[in-house]
Amino acid sequence: MRKVKIILYSFLALLVAVLLVIFFCNRAITNAAEGKLYSNIEHIPYNKTGLLPGTSKYLVAGFLNPYYTYRIEAAIRLLKAGKITYIIISGDNSSIYYNEPALMRADLLKAGIDSSCIYSDYAGFRTFDSMVRLKAIFGQDSVTVISQPFQNERAIYIASREGIAAIGFNARDVNARGGFKVQFREKLARVKVFLDYLLGAEPKFLGEKVNIP
Prior knowledge:
Rossmann fold, six-stranded parallel sheet, 6 strands
């Protein structure tokens, strides 16, 4: 019985420690974005460049992914309102059958956005890569990130670690039921941010620099 109690107490202690780590990582990232998120297009300051993080256009069942749709809508609004001049689409292009930047670019063009305003980052496999490459490859030290609030917060925290002045324009979010899995993954992704910096992680690819006028 004593051995069982020791195992149980050890498990509970470990569980509490994990929950505390998740809580403090989440809190630190949320605090870093305080006062830097905008939902009203009239109030958001101008930035030369916007960053549109990639996501899959379709869900497994074949339906349109609302996270994708809402981000595209937000990006179009910013560009047409003159709140950004250029936009970098940063997403996964890991195979010939999957190309997030190409799909997003096509939808922006369909909406009447000039192709000269659009730059594609085909190595934005995750938010960390996108933000580091924003400065290292595209030479930007300020940006408006265009995504749902949870990702905007994480991107702004990473930007602060990379010497980038970032704000976020909040795309419409998905309701709690529809976005439960995404929100759960986000908690773990925030812990991963701190592990990345602790372990000295780098983007999967860097490459040649791209000049934005």
